[in-house]
Amino acid sequence: xxxxxxxxxxxxxxxxxxxxxxxxxxxxxxxxxxxxxxxxxxxxxxxxxxxxxxxxxxxxxxxxxxxxxxxxxxxxxxxxxxxxxxxxxxxxxxxxxxxxxxxxxxxxxxxxxxxxxxxxxxxxxxxxxxxxxxxxxxxxxxxxxxxxxxxxxxxxxxxxxxxxxxxxxxxxxxxxxxxxxxxxxxxxxxxxxxxxxxxxxxxxxxxxxxxxxxxxxxxxxxxxxxxxxxxxxxxxxxxxxxxxxx
Length: 246
Known about the structure:
Elements: H1 2-11, E1 30-36, H2 39-47, E2 52-55, H3 64-73, E3 78-82, H4 89-92, E4 102-105, H5 111-119, H6 127-139, E5 142-148, E6 153-155, E7 158-160, E8 165-169, E9 173-178, H7 181-192, E10 199-204, H8 210-223, E11 228-233, E12 241-245
Parallel strand pairs: 1-2, 1-3, 3-4, 10-11
Antiparallel strand pairs: 5-8, 5-12, 6-7, 8-9, 10-12
């Protein structure tokens, strides 16, 4: 894990690649197309080797045609697609049949999963090899997100009132309900970070604040002192904080 952490930090200091690849870029054996929900995430993906970034997310899914166009623009005969949302996975899986290129989908359901997967990406390996290693990396990540409820509802975690802050964990649903963002984030992280986890990635959205981020980091430092923390500005809407733990 320490080696992967160092590799990601080194990659994130590299120049950003173009969002839309072209023959002017050096050819690679296998390129990556990724869906990103914010400008900061698009930049992060570029630093980690993604050659094509498509805007999309929870409320704006790209079409098969948009994904196909991005694949065709890649300067590679083999392409990995990172959908980064469960609703985009079946759309991405249609692309391989529509192109002469070899396309593999790594079924990432969140942006933190994509960040983890990209640490294992090798542009000179085959799509099949990359798909295997990137899938393993993505599946090793537990992810959560903070958002604000827009309506009253009842959940397994309790009653949610419009305006409440809620913490959602992939596979578990809503696990935290609170009147403040920081309290919801703390409850979510208490659920998410077990004794085997070593690294927490925090992706801040457009509605995050430095004060909230400081409080979240302080909670982790106090309650999970052995966990390293990475913070990235993602710029995603609706979700002030995305979390990934490895």
